[in-house]
Design a protein that fits this description.
This protein has 296 residues and is an alpha/beta fold. The chain is 46% helix and 14% strand. It is built from 12 helices and 8 strands. An 8-stranded parallel sheet has the order 6-5-4-3-2-1-8-7, sandwiched between helices. The two termini are 29 Å apart. The structure holds zinc ion. The site of zinc ion has 5 residues, from loops. Catalyzes the aldol condensation of dihydroxyacetone phosphate (DHAP or glycerone-phosphate) with glyceraldehyde 3-phosphate (G3P) to form fructose 1,6-bisphosphate (FBP) in gluconeogenesis and the reverse reaction in glycolysis. Belongs to the class II fructose-bisphosphate aldolase family. Pfam families: F_bP_aldolase.
Length: 296
């Protein structure tokens, strides 16, 4: 069997799943692993170079957009590259919502996939999640589920009543027990996109995070919605059970600015080399903030 048709881990079971293994270590030693959203090969190279330079574990995170636009060959390349790095790097598919995308993703060598567990009513959600977890785990793929609703509208500001979408800690325990998910992405006031002038601190309910962690201490929590989150606030979430932190524009804005300023001026080879370097530096800074540097 080709190494790319086998799932990570090569045994085809959940023993030595890369995502689970690195998050267990992060739990044991009190740090978080960054999950860096990548949209192109520059991003993938930047994460791998940053992780190797910082001796840090890392997660390369793709969206279903990559599944559909760049396709399965690109994903296999990402996994092959990530898994041959000198430090542990997992490849995760984020926000996999459409059933057709889930089905296709399970055929690919992802280490973990995030599914949405908030679209159906609770009983139907549990049944559907349990079914996906069983199928994914049999292929050696871990599952992250979103519980509650992580909002983010046009302007990113939460328009709904936040109380109604917070993850209920009691239900989270029942959900984890009955579905067997490996990671949980809670809603505690976090949103995708901009938090506006008040910043995340105005919306975040760290008490909800703490309750969740106490109810499901063995499950690493995942932080979504990290735009403009301070270094101090990242560390506050790690103290409350967050061990996977999704990072998107936080580590890519400098790269985008560099490319915008230099495209058409530098040779493409020089532009690419320097842009990857800029991107990697932003990632290395976050690896220090999250405490994952030196942990590989
Ligand atoms: Zn997210």
């Amino acid at each position: 069997m080709s190494p790319f048709t086998r799932k990570s881990p090569e045994t085809g079971t959940m023993e030595h799943n890369r995502t689970v293994d690195m998050l267990r270590r992060a739990q044991a030693y009190g740090y978080a692993v960054g999950a860096y959203n990548c949209y192109n090969d520059d991003g993938v190279m930047a994460v791998i170079r940053a992780a190797e330079a910082s001796k840090s574990p890392a997660i390369i995170q793709l969206f279903p957009w990559t599944l559909n636009f760049q396709g399965p060959h690109f994903i296999r390349w990402v996994v092959e590259y990530a898994h041959s790095a000198s430090v542990p790097i997992a490849v995760h598919l984020d926000h996999c919502i459409e059933p057709e995308d889930v089905r296709r993703a399970l055929e690919l060598p992802f280490d973990s996939i995030m599914i949405d567990a908030s679209r159906l009513d609770p009983e139907a959600n549990i049944a559907e999640c349990a079914r996906i977890v069983e199928e994914a785990n049999a292929r050696g793929i871990a599952i992250e589920a979103e519980l509650g609703r992580i909002e983010g509208g046009e302007d990113g500001l939460p328009l709904t009543d936040l109380e109604s979408i917070l993850t209920n800690p009691g239900f989270a325990r029942e959900f984890v027990d009955r579905t067997g998910v490996q990671l949980l992405a809670p809603s505690f006031g976090n949103i995708h996109g901009s938090y506006g002038p008040l910043g995340p601190k105005a919306y975040w309910r760290l008490d909800v995070l703490k309750d969740l962690n106490e109810n499901i201490p063995s499950i690493p929590l995942v932080l979504h919605g990290t735009t403009a989150v301070s270094d101090v606030l990242f560390r506050e979430t790690i103290k409350r059970g967050v061990h996977k932190i999704n990072l998107n524009r936080t580590v890519r804005d400098d790269y985008s600015r560099f490319v915008a300023a230099n495209a058409g001026k530098l040779e493409l080879t020089a532009l690419k080399e320097q842009a990857v370097e800029v991107h990697a530096k932003s990632i290395e800074r976050l690896m220090d903030v999250l405490g994952s540097s030196g942990r590989a």
